[in-house]
Amino acid sequence: MNIQRAFSIKGVGKYLPKTTISSSKIEEELGLSKGYIFKNIGVKTRHVAMEESNTFMAEQALRSALKDANMSIKDIDCLIGASATFDYIIPNRSCLIKNAFKEAFDLDFPCIDIDTVCTSFISALDYATLLLHSGDYRNIAIVSSEISSIGLNPNDAETYSLFGDGAAAVIISTTNQKNGLIQYKSKTYAEGAKYTIIEAGGNMNPTKNVPYDPALYSFQMQGRKLLKKVKSTLPIFLSQFFKPLPVSLQDINLIIPHQASKLGLRMLATLNKGNSENIVDQLENHGNCIAASIPIALVTSIENKTLTEGDTCFLLGTAAGITISGLLFKYSRL
Amino acid sequence: MNIQRAFSIKGVGKYLPKTTISSSKIEEELGLSKGYIFKNIGVKTRHVAMEESNTFMAEQALRSALKDANMSIKDIDCLIGASATFDYIIPNRSCLIKNAFKEAFDLDFPCIDIDTVCTSFISALDYATLLLHSGDYRNIAIVSSEISSIGLNPNDAETYSLFGDGAAAVIISTTNQKNGLIQYKSKTYAEGAKYTIIEAGGNMNPTKNVPYDPALYSFQMQGRKLLKKVKSTLPIFLSQFFKPLPVSLQDINLIIPHQASKLGLRMLATLNKGNSENIVDQLENHGNCIAASIPIALVTSIENKTLTEGDTCFLLGTAAGITISGLLFKYSRL
User: Fold this and answer.
1) From CA B295, how far away is CA B61, in angstroms rounded?
2) Cys-Cys with A99: which of A32, A123, B27, B193 at CB 3.0–4.6 Å?
3) Is the Cβ–Cβ distance between B249 and B238 less than 8 Å?
4) SS3 B270
5) Number of inter-chain CB pairs under 8 A, A vs B
6) What ipTM goes with this model?
């Protein structure tokens, strides 16, 4: 297949919070029957940031990726923050991550944030390939770090039991090999923009006027409406995505979907002709980690050799917005 | 000069909140002497969003840009939100802007947010030229919409009297003319990442644990430290920016700086060999509108014909982070 914009993955890293919370503990807390959450939501356990910040997790993930790449922060030409949650409203995430590297205080490489909620990593990876292709950069770090746990409402069992926290970093580099981006597409179906929302904390319902209320300050999801919209649009998205390509979804070596929900993953397996073998599913041990889900799964797949040199890999995500994004690439370290 | 990535500006629009608040009114409120704010901060009046949301202002600015371009929302291939403030934490800004166009419900063009705080518009414009250049898009809308007024602390006279609200939209398009991006550079000096900060409202000090306090939930600026850092880095940034070009800062037809502060604008005039004639200064009537400052100034300059066909225009901004970004382009509607 034609490589649209070549890149190699030089290093990957992840950080998962020390504390894990089992679904059985949440079942006790919410008064749900034993096994209810795994059966209905698909999650057995998730990491929860009790002592970590978004920036700390991002820093650890990036340090791990640098080590994997045999690089230092001095080798990085641009840092992209690709997350939906943040430590501070201002400044932006990526500048805070760079700030955590005290040894980078005399380095002037730029930091930028990309936000398409759960598909931020995919958007950032496409953007990074454009930057590499523009000739100004050689090594770009993309970091997704998410703490969902602070914005969950214990009175909403569906979201409270679904989400988890974590971070991952990927360093992509220029290459003269024929590896890298085959195709990227993103589409937004804005009719469903408010199907998933945090009502308060922004300018619409500022903390100045709206005191803390778990319902208003937590992530709300109209799950049924969202699933209905994705059900009607995802097959069209996939059909349009693969139409210009000489391969179909079934031919891809590894499919890494956003770990949106059990039903979402099942929907994808159905569209993959009932085959879930080449679809990465880590919902059971991580839950939905917002934008960090896809890169955590990517890092894990590289670490455990599910994704190996020369494989085709398809990142596919649905996000609040509603945005659907897909990025097909040929994986290589070279 | 060589055009690195061609583009034309097909349409521009802005929206300014209906309510204006004069500095004399703020002087009364804060017990400051008459004329203090204009003398020290440089602002006489600013627009304040009393009845408008970020999304509403963005929508109005984009509708105005579409009208100017003689386009409808159907002609847009991608929408980039380029702001630091937001109506909701989730979903992202650009999806909410698209959602305000009910006539766009059956359109699937993608929405993406770029955040480099005050320089978000510059970052988004560079990104948009990369997208145009990649061949997938013809017309891209960039929208910056900022409400700073909600996050200001009346006990902090410096910031309370400096900021204003507003929105602007620019539609850029492919062209076969030799106009467009000449050069873009961005650098982040992360040592100063926390010189400008909103302490609470993110995961570090979440509303769940930290009740409303104007100091914690408002924008804080260590003005002196910030200015010192910019004073030492901006001359180097400009020198590096213009080194590869056959022109210097003084040769540019129009310089549109971020309206950061009176001292910041004065510093730029000094670096421009004392000439402030070709530097757009709208601090007096708008204040610092975060990421919307630069595009509002760009739109106004096009509307009042300060920027005309074929002119060179240099966008230059400093942002929380600390990020400095510059983008030089040859302006054309063709």
Assistant:
1) 11
2) B193
3) yes
4) helix
5) 236
6) 0.97
* Cβ within 8 Å, pair B325-A110: yes
Share of chain A above pLDDT 90, in %: 99
Q: Give the CB-side neighbour count of residue B106, counting CA atoms within 13 A.
A: 1
A292-331: per-residue pLDDT in tens?
999 999 999 999 999 999 999 999 999 999 999 999 999 9
Strand A180-188 to A5-6 pairing = antiparallel
Mean pLDDT over the full length of chain B: 97
Of A96, A105, A204, the CB nearest to B88: A204
Q: What is the DSSP letter of A296?
A: H
3-class DSSP assignment, residue B18:
coil
Contacts of A131 in chain B (CB under 8 A): 130
Listed in sequence order, the DSSP H helices in chain B are 23-30, 36-40, 54-68, 93-100, 120-134, 157-160, 223-242, 262-271, 283-286, 293-303
- Burial class (CB within 10 angstroms; exposed 0-12, middle 13-18, buried 19+) of B274: exposed
Distance between CA atoms of residues B27 and A69, nearest Å: 56
| Model pLDDT for residues B35-45, shown as the tens digit of each residue | 999 999 999 99
What pLDDT was estimated at residue A303? 97
CB B258 within 8 A of CB B316: yes
pLDDT tens digits for A19-40?
Answer: 999 999 999 999 999 999 999 9
Residue B314 main-chain phi, psi, to 5 deg: -115, 115
Q: Report the C-alpha gap between A6 and B53 in whole angstroms.
A: 41
> Going from the N-terminus, what domains does chain B have, and what CATH number goes with each?
1-334 (3.40.47.10)
| Four-residue CA torsion sign, A267, A268, A271, A274 | negative
User: Which of A137, A190, A262 lies closest to B99, judged by CA?
Assistant: A190
CA A315/CA A325 separation, integer angstroms = 8
Cβ(B166)–Cβ(B47) under 8 Å?
yes
> Which of B166, B144, B191, B192 is CA-nearest to residue B282?
B166
Q: Which among A189, A194, A199 has CB closest to B108? A: A189
The verdict on a CB contact (< 8 Å) between A91 and B197 is yes
Beta strands in B84-177 (DSSP E): 111-115, 139-146, 166-173
Task: Give the contacts of A173 (CB within 8 A, at least 6 positions apart).
Answer: A7, A8, A9, A10, A132, A138, A139, A140
The stretch B128-152 carries a mean pLDDT of: 96
**Which residue on chain B is closest to A135 by alpha carbon?**
B4
Give the three-class secondary structure for B82. Answer: coil
Q: Express as a percent the part of chain B with pLDDT over 90.
A: 99
C-alpha to C-alpha distance for B132 and A271, rounded to whole angstroms: 32
Residue A211 to residue B208, Cβ atoms within 8 A:
no
Asked if the peptide bond before residue A322 counts as cis, ω within 30 degrees of 0, the response is: yes
Backbone phi, psi, residue B129, to 5°:
-70, -35
Two tokens at A78?
């641009």
Say if residues A297 and A280 touch (Cβ distance below 8 Å). Answer: yes
Q: How confident is the model at residue A196 (pLDDT cuts 50, 70, 90)?
A: very high
Distance from the first to the final alpha carbon of chain A:
18
- Give the model's confidence band at A208: pLDDT under 50 very low, under 70 low, under 90 confident, else very high: very high
Chain B neighbors of A187, CB-CB under 8 A: 108-110
Residues 6 or more apart whose Cβ sits within 8 Å of residue A9: A170, A171, A172, A173, A302, A331, A332, A333
Give me the helices (H) in A101-208, please.
120-134, 157-160
